[in-house]
Specification:
Layout lengths: L1 H16 L24 H8 L5 E8 L2 E8 L7 E7 L7 H12 L3 E5 L18 H9 L3 H16 L4 E10 L1 H10 L7 E5 L7 H5 L5 E8 L1 H4 L2 H10 L4 E10 L2 H6 L9 H26 L2
Parallel strand pairs: 3-4, 3-5, 5-6, 6-7, 7-8
Antiparallel strand pairs: 1-2, 2-4
Length: about 300
């Protein structure tokens, strides 16, 4: 009996002292981790703090809604094209802000709305929600019409900035990629839509409403999203819409964020190092492509 009790105590101690399992690289649009949305992105925060560009938070108001937005201005002489940046299912994060700053560095006004504005405690947004599970649930419960209205209000706001030239593109990642494609069906004046590993509309009527060119950025190791691309291509072709797709072989879903992150520690296994290298390569190629396309607008 004493031996049995001793064994049970040893097992309990082992369970308590064991390190928590870490989530895999990349992320699932449907299963965010329990960590806060911006956790593990200190590198993104530090990059932003080093930026010399002007950045600010603004409240975009329409009706009874107030949408908190992060805006970064480029250091350019002439008026600039604007890009609405739609966040992942993780909501407003340090990485989303870093991407906005990178767009400003390339010469564009970047505005990233927190589409969870007003849903956190005391009327806050993403950062006022308890964890990423709550963030993911809140995003999945967002009314599509509200998302469209928020994005239209944000696009109208940035269009009318004195530093803007009137052209507005949209870029989204993961959940935001899907919303970027959907926004193109709701705002015919968009200059372009950049869809990073997001799915396309399934309705021919929605596709028919698209006026802007749509540029897709997909990962080779992302069967869930990749399986939807051929159907989207078929619908876009039938409607005679411009839809240019590039798939980055070997990259995983979320490669833009994964490729921006610091490399694995020296002691990391070969699989982790290979995964990082592939995601980084895809991120660099996708970023180069996006900047080239923006320059043509």
């Amino acid at each position: 009996m004493r031996k049995a009790l001793l064994l049970i105590m040893m097992l309990l101690l082992a369970a308590i002292s064991a390190p928590a399992q870490q989530p895999p690289a990349g992320h699932s649009e449907h299963a965010p981790t329990a960590a806060p949305a911006s956790s593990g992105q200190e590198w993104a925060k530090q990059s932003l703090e080093r930026s010399p560009r002007h950045r600010e938070w603004v409240n975009v108001k329409y009706g009874n809604r107030v949408v908190s937005c992060f805006v970064v201005y480029p250091e350019v002489k002439n008026k600039a094209t604007a890009v609405v940046v739609i966040h992942e299912i993780f909501g407003m994060s340090d990485w989303v802000q870093m991407v906005s700053d990178e767009l400003a560095e390339a010469g564009y006004i970047a505005i990233a709305p927190d589409l969870l504005s007003g849903l956190g405690s005391n009327g806050g947004g993403t950062s006022a929600l308890p964890d990423a599970n709550a963030v993911g649930k809140a995003i999945r419960d967002l009314p599509p019409d509200q998302i469209t209205a928020d994005l239209n209000a944000v696009a109208d706001y940035v269009t009318n900035l004195p530093a803007a030239n009137g052209k507005v593109a949209v870029a989204g990642f993961c959940w935001g990629g899907t919303q970027s494609f959907r926004f193109a069906t709701n705002r015919p004046s968009l200059a372009a839509a950049f869809v990073f590993y997001g799915t396309g509309p399934e309705s021919p009527e929605a596709i028919a409403a698209i006026k802007a060119p749509v540029y897709g950025f997909y990962a080779g190791n992302d069967a869930r999203v990749g399986a939807t691309v051929p159907k989207t291509q078929e619908l876009m072709k039938a409607a005679r819409k411009r839809y240019e797709v590039v798939t980055y072989e070997g990259a995983g879903h979320g490669f833009m964020r994964a490729g921006d992150a610091p490399p694995p520690a020296a002691g990391a296994d070969q699989k982790a190092r290979d995964s990082y290298a592939t995601n980084r390569k895809a991120r660099d190629a996708a970023w180069t492509r996006m900047k080239a396309l923006l320059k043509k607008l």
